[in-house]
Specification:
Elements (H helix, E strand, L loop, with lengths): L1 E2 L5 E2 L2 E8 L4 E9 L7 E13 L2 E2 L5 E3 L6 E4 L4 E3 L3 E5 L4 E8 L3 E2 L2 E3 L6 E5 L12 E3 L2 E2 L1 E7 L5 E7 L1 H4 L11 H11 L4 E7 L18 H6 L4 E6 L2 H8 L6 H17 L3 E5 L12 H14 L8 E3 L1 H5 E2 L2 E5 L13 H9 L9
Parallel strand pairs: 18-19, 18-20, 20-21, 21-22
Antiparallel strand pairs: 1-13, 2-12, 3-11, 3-14, 4-9, 4-10, 4-17, 5-6, 5-7, 5-8, 5-11, 13-16, 14-15, 23-24
Helix pairs in contact: 2-8
């Protein structure tokens, strides 16, 4: 989640937000955040159901969500609440629609600005409606910060922490072609019951805030506090440190921050998988000095001294062998910074499933 300063608000409106699952289960619970709010958040008549396309749900699957047995909840400023468990058969890689009614004037405070998933907004209490009309369409997620799928044994959860490449920029959103979705497919095909949580924020940086809190400062809240987390994949944040921070940080500053996160993960017995940085020559903020630092970072995590528990070589999977500082043209979204669908698939295929069988 990140802070919203737009001044927008909701009142007497229903949000229907779609979450694409990775694993299946027999029970669920949801998490609603008022992390960046400055007043209590009032939420009523929360429902979840299987989505059937657009704003429609499968009516027979609709379930009321309660909070300590109540049909409404008030979330204090700065806090997050977890619902009661709801008996609900969730297929793996399914769309779950979560609807919540906001009766009072509710400033948009805690949200994910570019969620790569369509959400729907309608007037009045429409939470249990099979279809929401008329509905506004949004590409952001508001207040909803998690869907926990529970009810059967599984190996654990892998959290992908990163910036826009992790978030899914450049992939076909509606087909779920993000590399994290492709990784979930690989787990499923291999019979590995592993949940995948995408915590990418477009524009996020490792060292300093901007598009959300820095990766290091949100590591405890966003990664270590996830239920069942056993692995973290640290991905593309440092690209934005190199391109967006002036002057750009040196290699020692970047690696020191990453090693602090590794130590925090290891203290919780969580395995930390490091990703090399993808090429970005010809992107609008690339320089030769930043390219040298990118190459130094990639060389560092390929050594045993990095303390990484495994390496995902996104660089080797996506660069043009004839021009290693650039994307392979077949994988370039067009801005020379983000991968397209084929590039996202190449990144997912670069993840060794052996790391998750131990």
């Amino acid at each position: 989640m990140m802070r919203d300063n737009s001044g927008a608000s909701f009142q007497d409106q229903t949000l229907r937000q779609i979450v694409h699952t990775s694993i299946g289960g027999t029970e669920t619970r949801i998490r609603i955040s008022n992390l960046f709010g400055d007043r209590p958040l009032v939420v009523k008549d929360v429902h979840l159901a299987l989505g059937s396309g657009g704003s429609e749900i499968i009516a027979a699957s609709d379930r009321l969500v309660t909070f300590q047995g109540k049909e409404s909840t008030i979330i204090p400023a700065g806090e997050t609440i977890v619902s009661d468990r709801v008996p609900f058969n969730v297929p793996q890689r399914a769309d779950v629609a979560i609807s919540m009614y906001l009766p009072e004037k509710t400033p948009v405070s805690s949200h994910h600005a570019t969620a790569h998933q369509t959400s729907y907004i309608a007037s009045g209490d429409m939470s249990s409606s099979e279809r929401m009309e008329p509905a506004k369409i949004s590409r952001s997620v508001y207040f909803l910060c998690g869907l926990d799928v529970v009810g059967r044994p599984y190996r654990g959860t892998v959290v992908a922490l990163g910036a826009s490449i992790t978030e899914g920029y450049g992939a076909n959103d509606e087909n779920h072609d993000l590399w994290t979705d492709e990784l979930a497919r690989r787990f499923s095909d291999a019979g590995l019951e592993i949940g995948v949580v995408n915590l990418g924020i477009s524009g996020n940086r490792l060292l300093v805030p901007g598009a959300g809190d820095s990766a290091e400062s949100r590591f405890q809240r966003d990664v270590l506090a996830q239920p069942g987390v056993r692995w973290v994949i640290f991905s593309d944040d440092p690209i934005n440190d190199l391109g967006s921070t002036k002057p750009a940080p040196d290699i020692d500053t970047i690696t020191a921050a990453m090693e602090r996160m590794i130590a925090m993960a290891h203290a919780r017995h969580i395995r930390f998988l490091c990703s090399t940085l993808t090429p970005f020559q010809d992107a609008n903020y690339w320089t030769e000095q930043e390219e040298q630092t990118r190459e130094q970072f990639n060389a560092f995590i390929r050594t045993s001294g990095s303390h990484c528990d495994g390496i995902i070589d996104q660089d080797a999977a996506t660069h043009d062998p004839a021009h290693p500082a650039r994307f392979l043209p077949a994988y370039d979204h067009g801005d020379h910074l983000h991968p397209n669908d084929a590039g996202h698939l190449a990144i997912a295929n670069a993840v060794s499933l052996g790391y998750f069988r131990r």
